[in-house]
Amino acid sequence: MEISELSLDERLISVLKERGVRRLFPPQAEAVRAGIFEGRHVLLCTATASGKSLLAEVASVKTALEGGMALYAVPLKALAYEKLVHFSHYGNLVKVGVSTGDFDSDDRRLYEYDVVVVTYEKLDSLLRHRPGWLSSVKTVVIDEIHYLGDPKRGAVLESIIAKIKHLGLRAQFIGLSATVGNATEVADWLGARLVVSSWRPVPLREGVYYGGRIYFSDGSHRAVSASGDAEVALAVDVVAEGGQALVFTNSRSSTARLAKAIARAIAAYPTKLINVAETEALAEEILRVSSSKIIGRELAEVVARGVAFHNAGLELEVRRLVEDGFRRGVIKVVVSTTTLAAGVNLPARRVVIADYERFDPVVGREEIPVLEYKQMAGRAGRPGLDAVGEAVIVARSKNEVGYLMERYIKGQVENIKSHILLEPNLRTHVLGAVGGGYAGSIDELVEFFSNTLGYFQSKIAVKSAVLRSKIAAAVEKLAEWGFLERDGDYVYATELGRQVARLYLDPETAARYIDFIKSLKEGNTAAYLYIVLTAPDFPRVRRGRVDKRVVEEVLKALDVEEDEEFEDVVKTVAMLMAWIEEADEDVIFEKFEVAPGDLRVYIDLFDWLGNAAAKLAGIIGEEEHRRRLEVVTARVIYGVREELLELVTTLRGVGRVRARTLYNFGYRTVRDIARASIREIASLPGFGEKLAKSIIEQARQLVETS
Ligand SMILES: Nc1ncnc2c1ncn2[C@@H]1O[C@H](COP(=O)(O)OP(=O)(O)OP(=O)(O)O)[C@@H](O)[C@H]1O
């Protein structure tokens, strides 16, 4: 199907042509026939890089050009910003905004945008606030909708869909999914037309590697000429042929270890495989940007030889440099953890799956699901560069070859299973439904939840009765915590309950926060950190010994049992204490094994949960605790002592390091800076004339308007 045949606005067609899109890919043409441009609900279950996102973008822009609003939901904040970049191709045609944080807001200003990119949680939160502009929404795209099977986030997606159905919005759903076992069931539940296809822009060959050979599923095999460990040989072999490799492994430490081994092999290869001038320039750039010099040096060393590792410990800016370097062909091999398979769009000629098992702290060793294997394998083959993509799993013994072939290459992708009717998900979403005004009685709650996939999948004969009793139990627990009140069959949210729903808190976490705040004898920084960190959302620091001083401080303020959980939380408190006492990122990495990328996760979560705890303190009348929780939260966000808050929160271009320099040189307030000369500030370490000028201008403006 030619682009020009589509009944789309001319301006949209010319943008597509400019982007090099002339004909639709076969699955895209099928989606058009299914009515994706006529406002129909469509579930697209097609291969990686088959053009799902492009189609959903076009449908969103089309809606906008027709005067409606489109919401585009993605699973991660970082992806939301990436999406924004994609939408920038449509230039002046539409106004596109991103909304990912601050759950306690109905974001009225979003009305100004034609397309709003949101995270799942933000979208659910917006639906709880029910801003007036919701009625203008005509298209809702849910990217990576297979997250429906995720134990926690799946329930968020179900709840979003149940709310949209309940509101009776005349909005079209577009679900974009990786291949899943029960796509038909999911499409039936959504009431959507299903487009399933395994078509790929670059054909894929899948195989298992053992003893120097790749055994492909079509019965053919090929010898791998390079030597060394399996992953090293597979990577070097493809680079020597002018291709690139993406190696997936199961732990952060093995990403670095394997990257080093591959870098050594590339350097020792008889012919030159990389452009040293380019790799060294990129290595320098990485070293400059990296806030941990330890990690920066380790990465730069391999990048200089055309190899990189990529994992959640790297900060976003560094990850982007690696991804960009790989796309440009400067980096030949990236070794990544499996957790990044879904988020990173980095195609390579050969994808190597080094481990099909991983370690889970709860269940121990486990095999990765087929879905995850398929997502990694799907990255093989760069459109325009490779004639064929290859996905290779590494077998550790001869016996494994057949097993891996059956289990993964020929295996069925798992079904998506709902988790919304399980505690604590049900409690969270019952409160969300009542607090957001979607249900006011047990009957209405039953009706609301009968729109979920969980209900759709439960056994027909008993389902209503079972659902009712589960809901009643959830309501009872929420009433015990003071978030709901029951009057016969009617259910009301208390003021506190409404706030908990609006703050997007798990009710159990909120109840715990409230208990802690009420029982606080006298607040101190360690105790406030402890309270906020008890939320199960935070990863735990497990490294090192428990800091006695921190324990004393916490126990001075709170009555808590010193069990294993306590120890883990206290270690995490000690890590954040170091951060807000202005310890260097490298010190935090060495002492707690928390890398800059991990630190960012803590900071983002604290921004939400610390502020939420402060608001709860305010609602229950604990003003002093509210104020101090706010201060602690701001300190975590900026990584500073309290005395620097004025500078870091008001001046653009001033982070924790520069603020400390200014302070130590006697510029302690915005007023001090407003009085300074450009020359004085420019001469401080880490400042230049341009920055000094900007800071002084900002400071003067602030003083004038205060
Ligand atoms: N019809 C087309 N003609 C040419 N290029 C296209 C076409 N459709 C999409 N593309 C390009 O192909 C690439 C992959 O498309 P897209 O990201 O939409 O795929 P996807 O199925 O969403 O992939 P993923 O599963 O990784 O999210 C993009 O660079 C996109 O611009």
UniProtKB/TrEMBL annotation:
Name of the encoding gene: hel308
Positions of the Helicase C-terminal domain: 231-427
Molecular functions (GO terms): 3'-5' DNA helicase activity; ATP binding; ATP hydrolysis activity; DNA binding
Protein family according to the UniProt entry: Belongs to the helicase family. Hel308 subfamily.
DNA damage listed as a keyword: yes
Full protein name: ATP-dependent DNA helicase Hel308
Record key words, sorted: ATP-binding, DNA damage, DNA repair, DNA-binding, Helicase, Hydrolase, Isomerase, Nucleotide-binding
GO biological process: DNA repair
InterPro entries reported in the protein's UniProt record: DEAD/DEAH_box_helicase_dom, Hel308-like_dom4, Hel308_SKI2-like, Helicase_ATP-bd, Helicase_C-like, Helicase_Hel308, Hlx-hairpin-Hlx_DNA-bd_motif, P-loop_NTPase
Cross-referenced Gene3D superfamilies: 1.10.3380.30, 5' to 3' exonuclease, C-terminal subdomain (1.10.150.20), P-loop containing nucleotide triphosphate hydrolases (3.40.50.300)
First-tier enzyme category under EC: isomerase
Function: DNA-dependent ATPase and 3'-5' DNA helicase that may be involved in repair of stalled replication forks.
Assigned EC number: 5.6.2.4
Helicase ATP-binding domain segment(s): 33-198
Pfam families: DEAD, Helicase_C, Helicase_dom4_arc, HHH_5
Lineage, broadest ranks: Archaea, Thermoproteota, Thermoprotei, Thermoproteales, Thermoproteaceae
Residues that hold ATP according to the record: 28
Origin: domain of life: Archaea
Catalytic activities: Couples ATP hydrolysis with the unwinding of duplex DNA by translocating in the 3'-5' direction; ATP + H2O = ADP + phosphate + H(+)
Subunit structure: Monomer.
